[in-house]
Design brief:
- It contains 11 helices and 17 strands.
- The protein is an alpha/beta fold.
- The strands form 5 sheets. Strands 1, 2, 3, 4, 5, 6, 7, 9 and 14 form a 9-stranded mixed sheet that branches.
Length: 297
Amino acid sequence: MKPSRIAVAGASGLIGSALVRSLEADGHEVVRLVRREPRAGNEVRWDPERGEVDTAGLADCDVVINLAGAGVADHRWTEAYKKTIRDSRVRGTATLAGAIAGLEQPPRVFVNGSAIGIYGDTGNLPVDERTPPGEGFLPSVCVEWEAAAAPAREAGIRTVFPRTGLVVSRAGGAWGRMFPLFAAGLGGRMGSGRQYWSYVALDDEVAAIRHLIDRDDLSGPFNITAPQPLTNREITGAMGRVLHRPTLFSVPESVLRVALGEMAGDVLGSQRVLPARLLQSGFTFAYPGIEDAIRAA
């Protein structure tokens, strides 16, 4: 892909910051959407809560990427925070989709973040992009999140939804919290340990998003998860082997439910998600195995 002007919302997040570094290293001009007053020429003001964005700053953008959203694991799921999780995704997506749909020269592609949470708890059943949404809070959020991009699709803009799994990184997310515990020898399985975790190395996440940007024939949802999901017990063992630490501790389900409340269902739930469409499109994972992904982090 030749150097382009690319707008990114959520540029300071775990995935966004890594993606921006990758794009800028290859000579792309990255415009960051910020909620405060811009402090540099490469920043554009937007206010997703009020549905406002400086459309002049999006002019001549070949690609618009939206990775913004309140962290699912940042706080206990009170009713107020659940509303924040939903609104930050749905309103932000609707704001950007509407803005770019109205541009005189719209972008070539709109990449709007999503998550494998759309499938809900799938137990031991392997699922891919053909699987319908599950039931519960996160599936309902993801359905609304993707639906909010309708103005972009209806305007003829190629729209892609990377449905991201658990990102293996020391810099943030679930793994960012796990690494210090396992490094201290305090890591272990959660609940029964039989629940499937669908993970992806951060470098593969970035490479997959760039693959979706570059391929003009790709649109719709794409699961971004390693080809072979593993159980929490298997991942715990891999963490111990790579970090050379024991994994004797475990957190009972009852304790997790007391400590995390409703969010515990997301930790204890099982998601055996396969990246079927991504593999069919010819994407190759650099770190397909869990030990490779942990070492890369």
